[in-house]
Amino acid sequence: MQYLPVLILLAVGLGLGGTIIVLSSFLGPKIKNTLKDAPFECGVPPLGDTKHRFSVRFYLVAILFLLFDVEAIFFFPFALIYREYLSVNTFILLEMGFFVGILLIGYFYVLRKGALEWE
User: Fold this and answer.
1) Considering the domain boundaries, does residue 31 fall inside one?
2) DSSP assignment of 29-67, as one string?
3) Is residue 109, in this structure, part of any structural domain at all?
4) Are 115 and 60 a contacting pair, CB within 8 Å?
């Protein structure tokens, strides 16, 4: 019973999203035009084939960037709380050292596997 507002919000969101998709398919324009259907990138017509494959390294570097970037967000609460709680400073410092150690292990693992090399 305590999750009823969440379920109502979920139902309203799914209903609204489905309604918008159905209405746009019925009310949207139906005229096909090759010029309108052509890919358009930043005001410049694309050169060459638009369906070429990218190396997996692009995606790997993007995922690693997100991983380490999201983990870096956890430094902000540490910086805000560290000075406020003087009695548990050593515990907080040890916990943050452990966290940084795990990050460094992951970073050195990625370096050793050669995930950041472009050759």
Assistant:
1) no
2) -----HHHHS--BTTBPPPS-S-PPPPHHHHHHHHHHHH
3) yes
4) yes
Using the predicted structure, report yes or no on whether residue 38 has a pLDDT greater than 80.
no
Query: Could you give the CA distance from residue 40 to residue 46 in angstroms, rounded to a whole number?
Result: 7
Nearest to 38 by CA among 28, 46, 26: 46
At 70-114, the pLDDT tens digits run 888 888 888 777 777 666 677 878 888 898 899 889 889 988 988
Whether 73 contacts 41, CB under 8 Å: no
CA–CA distance, 119 with 83 (Å, rounded to integer): 45
What's the domain count of the chain?
1
Structure tokens at 117: 């090399």
Residue type, 48: G
Domain hosting residue 90, numbered range: 56-113
Residue 103 located in a structural domain: yes
Predicted model pTM:
0.48
59/65 Cα distance (integer angstroms):
10
pLDDT at 21 over 90: yes
Q: Is residue 49 part of a domain?
A: no
